[in-house]
Amino acid sequence: MNWRVAGPPALLSLALSILTVGTGPQWQDSTIYLTAVYEYGVLYPPGFTLYLTLCKAWTLATAPLFGFTLSVHLFSSLCVAAAAGALALAAWAVSRHVAASAAVGCLAASGYTWWYAGIYAKGYALYALIVALLLLSLIRREHRRAMVLLALGWAAHPSAALLIPAFLCHVYAHRREIGELGRRKLALTAGVALLAGLGPTLLLPLLSARETDAAMGHVNSLGRLAAYAVGKKFVEIPDVWGWSTPRVLTVVRYVWEEFLVIGLGLVALGLLALRREGPARVLGIAIWCGSVAVVTTLFKIEGQHDLWLLAAYVPLWAVAAVGLGELAQRWRFAPAAVAAAGVLWAVAANYRDVNQRGYDLVERFGAAHLRPLARDAILILGSDDTLGVCRYLQAVKGERTDVLIVSAPLIWSPESQDWYLERLRKRRPDLKAPDERPPDPTADFSRVSQPLVAQAALANANADRPVYFEAPPPPRALRPDFVAVRSGLLWKMTPKGAAEPAEDVDGDAEEVASRIRRSRGQSLKMGEGRLVVAPEPYEWRYLKVLLVARAARAERRTALRTPEGFREAAALYESILRLDRDEVFDGRCAFFYGTSLAALGDRRASVAFASALEKGGLAPSQEVVAWLQLGDRHRAEGRAGEARACYERASKLPAQDPALRAEIERRLK
Measured between alpha carbons, how far is 173 from 466 in angstroms, rounded to an integer? Predict the structure, then answer.
């Protein structure tokens, strides 16, 4: 190995990781993976057992020295540093320029996604290492090793299947060399590759037998093993594949943030140089990168497609080394100058958003959901972030182990109800099973997304064992003797007449808003059979629940029907609208802001009502009120024509009660 090539990128990557790695959990799946490694339990499909096993072994050796969570992050640091070194070697193999290859490895190591993968508790760093080694083997024409690495890449992450088209092109281009290996060697290699790809997955039944609390599956049959291995659960989601303009635009932004001007310029120079040698290599690179980028973009449910794209970046950096080698032939100091400028630019652009030192928002987000709960409560959660961090706090940190955390997707899913309910009952023998019959036999449950979840909670709700939800069950699912009341960031099932005052927990909203970073997450919404995706900062997931709690607080102030109550409500609604930079809240927030201002006689009410109508989402009666208020403002300012137009718009809206109809007719007269 040429350490002059691999050493500088690997050391730089380690240095960047050490400067920015944190000791706490991070967003998205970080907490889920941390808990799975800690318990050595079953993750979601396809299981990621290669990463779990290797990382578990690493933590057994290093956790006493670094602490468990930091140890897991450092496993990623080690993998991504080795990946940077392997990438530099691949760049050297194609460019044959030592300085250019080392420089490009340093540029890659300082890219946002590459850097972030090295301090994140998930298998992308391991996957990047395998992909870099695969590219190195393909360039060196080490065909048998490449076959095994491709299979091993699939064991690390299923998106490695997107590299098969490029690998097949390589096989076709070198079919004579591969044929000379002989059938026996090829058969032996195929067997080793099969073992490398499927062997780790065969550990799933053993992991399932451990029956860990945070397990996300139970693979106890050949059918379940096959379904788990291919990720059947995800690929069958309605509208999971398709075009999404916001997602395409985020991919373009991710590429820019990774390469910046210097990296993109070197890639362009490298492609021009390779094109002069012939179209074969350029075509191979296009197939590799195109397969990854296109399928990743179309697979809409994947919220961390920025990290999927690491596999597409690897060959592009090797191309960049060819371009930098061309520059070095004209000016021998070009590699050093370009590396220094590119790394400094990348560090300046990325450091704030990558740095995890002292970053505590994820743990605070989980603590705000878990710590305030009553003793021996049942907590039903549905989102990955909330479920993951609360389980992390329980399993890894040992907090609130008296609370029974229930996964709404697992208790609802027909594939998991049997084993999951049985496992919950081992913790709580008195736990009741969901009642498939609703409290009201005439109720329509066709639009209730998780009726069994509501029933499971209601069957266990009593004064001694309160039940909490992220969102309240639909009213028609409630037992007649219970109500759902706001309790902090959650909803609590309580007997009627015993409702407790809701706790005000929204005081951190301004601080969280000030710490929002770049949009590297993705929001998912299912509506009318369509999966709608949009980029979002991870911090918004905490800020949003704080703002929802603040809106509930404002509603309680409005209910007082006093000047002071309206004044406080108006201030709260105004702060929500100011902090809601992505305009996630619809027009109802602006409408209630307008009603509070109108009650105070504040002239700004008309502006709020106009904003509410523009944003939409209002009930018909609210639209009527908003148009009437706007008409009254126009009339007060002497614009009779505009006022009448507003009143006529209100008269055409459906579902008006007699009182509103009378108000409209009175104004029209």
Answer: 66
- Residue 504 has a CB neighbour count (10 Å cut-off) of 12
Question: Exposure of 644 by Cβ count < 10 A (0-12 exposed, 13-18 middle, 19+ buried)?
Answer: middle
How does 205-220 read in b/e, with b if 16+ C-beta sit within 10 Å? Answer: bebbeeebbbbbbbbe
Q: List residues bridging with 421 in a β-sheet.
A: none
First to last CA, the chain: 90
Distance between CA 36 and CA 33 in Å, rounded? 5
> Most confidently modeled of 229-233, 357-361, 624-628?
357-361
Contacts of 176 (CB under 8 A, 6+ apart): none
DSSP reduced 3-state for 469: strand
Q: Residue 624's pLDDT is what?
A: 85
List, for residues 286-308, the tens digit of each pLDDT value.
999 999 999 999 998 888 999 99
Closest by CA position to 381, among listed 468, 441, 291: 468
Distance CA 47, CA 225 (A): 10
Is-contact 492 500, C-beta < 8 A? yes
Q: How far is CA 577 from CA 209, 340, 517, 546, in A?
A: 50, 43, 19, 13
* Contact between residue 436 and residue 455 where contact means Cβ atoms under 8 Å apart: yes
**Single-letter residue type at 570:** A
Tokens for 476, please give them: 């028609």
Q: Could you tell me which residues are beta bridge partners of residue 485? A: 492
Q: What tokens were used for 554?
A: 């404002």
Side chain identity, residue 510: E
**Length of the chain, in residues:** 669
Contact between 93 and 140 under an 8 Å Cβ cutoff? The reply is yes
| Buried b or exposed e, range 121-157, using 16+ CB within 10 angstroms | bbbbbbbbbbbbbbbbbbbeeebbbbbbbbbbbbbbb
In order, the DSSP letters of 255-291 are: HHHHHHHHHHHHHHHHHHHHHHH-HHHHHHHHHHHHH
Which two three-digit tokens encode residue 66?
A: 């670094």
Read out DSSP for 239-257? T-BS--HHHHHHHHHHHHH
Q: pLDDT digit string (tens) for 532-582?
A: 888 999 999 999 999 988 988 898 888 888 999 999 999 999 999 999 876
Strand intervals (E) in 427-571? 467-469, 482-487, 490-495, 521-527, 530-536
**Could you say which DSSP state residue 434 is in?**
P
Q: Which long-range contacts (CB under 8 A, 24 or more apart) does 589-595 make?
A: 589/551, 590/615, 591/618, 591/622, 591/625, 591/626, 592/551, 592/554, 592/555, 592/558, 594/626, 594/629, 595/558, 595/625
How does DSSP classify residue 534? E
**Is the C-alpha dihedral spanning 331, 332, 337, 338 positive or negative?**
positive
pLDDT at 500 over 80: no
Verdict on whether the full-model pTM lies above 0.70:
yes
**Whose CA is closest to 200, among 56, 392, 304, 308?**
56
What's the gap between Cα 126 and its chain centre? Answer: 19
Residue 337 to residue 355: CA distance in whole angstroms: 26
Q: Residue 45: is it exposed, middle or buried by C-beta count within 10 angstroms (0-12/13-18/19+)? A: buried
Q: What is the mean pLDDT of residues 619-641?
A: 84
- Tokens at 516, concatenated: 């929002």
Cβ neighbours of residue 194 under 8 Å, at least 6 residues apart? 151
Look at residues 113, 154, 468 and name the one whose alpha carbon lies nearest to residue 258: 113
